[in-house]
Prior knowledge:
The chain is mainly beta. It is 11% helix and 47% strand. It has one helix spanning 2-37, and strands at 71-78, 90-96, 107-113, 116-120, 123-131, 134-142, 147-152, 155-164, 175-181, 192-194, 202-206, 208-216, 221-229, 234-241, 243-251, 262-268, 273-278, 282-287, 289-297, 300-308, 314-319, 325-326.
Amino acid sequence: MTGGVIRLFIVLVSAALFTALPALVSVWQVHAQEFSSEGTSAPAFDLSLPSISSFAPATDSSSPLALQTGGEITLSARLTEEGKDISRGLVWRVFGQQAGPDGKLPLIASAQGGTSVFNLAPGGYLVHAAYGRAGATKRITVGRDGKSESLVLDAGGLKLDATLAGGVRIPPAKLKVSIYEAEADASGERALIIPNVSPNSVVRLNSGVYHIVSTYGAVNAVIRSDIRIEAGKLTEATVEHHAAELTMKLVREAGGEAIADTSWSILSSSGDPVREVVGAFASLVLAEGDYTIIAKNKDRIYQRDFTVVGGRNQDVEVLATEANTIQDMEGAD
Length: 333
């Protein structure tokens, strides 16, 4: 009797397992497909995981986590107190107030364009707005609430050009324009602000007086002037050079071939050295005035007096004749 009961129990248990087996196989196949699609092997056990709502919400990754507890500050800049906000061309830099080990203020943030928005930790900062060579600095305080700050640059524009007499344009490659501070230091030198300004380009500067140096060529055709920049205005200035470009040749006869291996010395009307060059064709720009040209070839020295007329470029021939020969080197060095 007992053996029969045991056999009946085993049969019932076997039937139950046989009935549940397809469902267990079906569940494993579903999980295997899910993990396979993600490139991950199937797990050994079916784990019970919490739902998505059990995790903390995702943070905004558009800004560093350290800044998300700070305040929002909007920075804008104008040329004058009554002017409009500058829409482009600004460079913003935000510095901390405590200098680092190198003695410099740490750069906290920067941006380019027009009006800019920063998220900063509460505290004090120094903000600098640069617009070309114009700029302004302001101390700001950032709190938890959003706020706006505006900087007045007190700046204008300067557009420079240079011509020869009669309005003839000077080749840009031979023209150099530089901007200096108006006031000289104790040694009589002025601080250079901007070198090599391109003709007809607009330079942004804080309002004030500046010293402009325009050089045509590389010798003595130099014009200096002081120009005042007004805030919110574009100042245009054109200087006129009274100078010319000369090409010197030592020849045996008028219109002849230039003699090679010739060295040249240019003297002013008072006998002061102006320039020394070497070459069969020696070209240079000289300011308007009277000069003496000295040419040396081998052991022979020749000279010619010449007048430079502004705007009149020309070739200058020195004839290698006895009439132009001098016997000593005095004044040629």
